[in-house]
DNA sequence: GCCCAGGCACCGA
DNA sequence: TCGGTGCATGGG
């Protein structure tokens, strides 16, 4: 399959792979020799994507593999029907339909962002295409260091997710709401989630199972504020988490996770502040980002992985 | 040992 | 409305 990329001159696959390699505890995708592997579910059928990119091309090359031990005559129809969903998911995950020119024009005039867009030119804002995954991930990441957050996330996925062995690796699908809702809280506690986080995650899972919360509340929201209100109404979701989800899942360009420790660290470094900036100072330093806030934040985060 | 982590809800004034 | 506090635990 070939998945089209908008504005390929502003597409940097190696930099995207570098971003995707940021944690050794990642298990929802793997990067190896320029290949990106990720398992997805298309109408309940697990499919493994093998994604490559040839420098200069206007498309990604994707092989879709049926990793289960299923006879080929059964697998073929599933693969044939997968083309459109695979394209939609990859486009959404890697922001293949993005036009970075407005952001780059803006960033060129900003002393903080200008060096970042020069160094990471073509880096797309890698998203989280699943709402349940993006919300639970923000809960997991609250108030603890990122390495520990990834450790708990890995336990969560390995214990409650669906897995398939293929090519010497174990590929996982993120746990479904019904499985999380039905899990014993003690099991989640063993993964070292705090009791509060367990409550938040299971409440969300249960609300999704019972139909009280659904992606439609975010997807069909008429504007940013409405979508944000639907998220903040959930226990455990505050301004930071809502903005993270609006940035990585819903892809609102103005999303700005103001309370983010990584953002504070970047602002401190690039504005040469003596200490961690106060919230009103963060507001002041980012106010002009406007509709570029999501990309500006993402490039700031990416720059912290340099070192 | 101490302080900070990709925060948030809850509490009392 | 607002500041203080507990959460859980790893890493610097």
From TrEMBL:
Domain of life: Bacteria
GO cellular component, one term: protein-DNA complex
Keyword DNA damage among record annotations: yes
Keywords: DNA damage, DNA repair
UniProt entry tagged with the keyword Transmembrane: no
One Pfam family linked to the record: HhH-GPD
Catalytic activity field: Hydrolysis of alkylated DNA, releasing 3-methyladenine, 3-methylguanine, 7-methylguanine and 7-methyladenine
InterPro entries: AlkA_N_sf, Alkylbase_DNA_Glycosylase/TA, DNA_glycosylase, HhH-GPD_domain
This enzyme's EC code(s): 3.2.2.21
MF term (GO), any: DNA-3-methyladenine glycosylase activity
Ranges where the HhH-GPD domain occurs: 140-305
GO biological process terms on file: base-excision repair, AP site formation; DNA alkylation repair
SMART domains for this protein: ENDO3c (SM00478)
PANTHER family xrefs: DNA-3-METHYLADENINE GLYCOSYLASE
Official protein name in the record: DNA-3-methyladenine glycosylase II
């Amino acid at each position: 399959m070939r998945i089209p990329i908008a504005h390929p001159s502003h597409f940097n696959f190696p930099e995207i792979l570098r971003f995707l390699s940021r944690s050794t505890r990642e298990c929802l995708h793997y990067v190896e020799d320029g290949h990106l592997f990720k398992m997805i579910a298309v109408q309940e059928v697990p499919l493994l994507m093998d994604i490559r990119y040839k420098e200069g091309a206007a498309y990604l090359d994707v092989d879709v593999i049926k990793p289960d031990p299923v006879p080929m005559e059964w697998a073929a129809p599933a693969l044939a029907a997968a083309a459109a969903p695979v394209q939609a998911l990859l486009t959404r995950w890697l922001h293949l339909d993005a036009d970075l020119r407005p952001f780059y024009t803006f960033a060129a005039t900003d002393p903080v962002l200008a060096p970042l867009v020069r160094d990471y030119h073509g880096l797309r804002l890698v998203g989280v295409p699943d709402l349940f995954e993006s919300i639970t991930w923000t809960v997991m990441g609250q108030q603890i260091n990122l390495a520990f957050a990834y450790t708990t996330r890995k336990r969560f996925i390995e214990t409650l997710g669906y897995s398939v062995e293929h090519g010497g690796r174990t590929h996982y699908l993120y746990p479904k709401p019904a499985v999380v809702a039905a899990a014993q809280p003690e099991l989640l506690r063993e993964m070292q989630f705090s009791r509060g986080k367990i409550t938040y995650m299971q409440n969300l899972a249960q609300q999704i199972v019972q139909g009280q919360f659904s992606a439609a509340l975010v997807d069909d929201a008429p504007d940013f504020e409405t979508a944000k209100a639907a998220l903040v109404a959930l226990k455990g979701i505050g301004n930071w988490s809502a903005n993270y989800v609006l940035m990585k899942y819903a892809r609102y360009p103005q999303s700005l996770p103001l309370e983010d420790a990584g953002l504070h660290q970047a602002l401190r470094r690039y504005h040469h502040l003596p200490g961690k900036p106060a919230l009103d100072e963060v507001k002041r330093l980012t106010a002009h980002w406007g509709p570029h806030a999501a990309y500006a934040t993402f490039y700031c985060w990416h720059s912290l992985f340099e070192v």
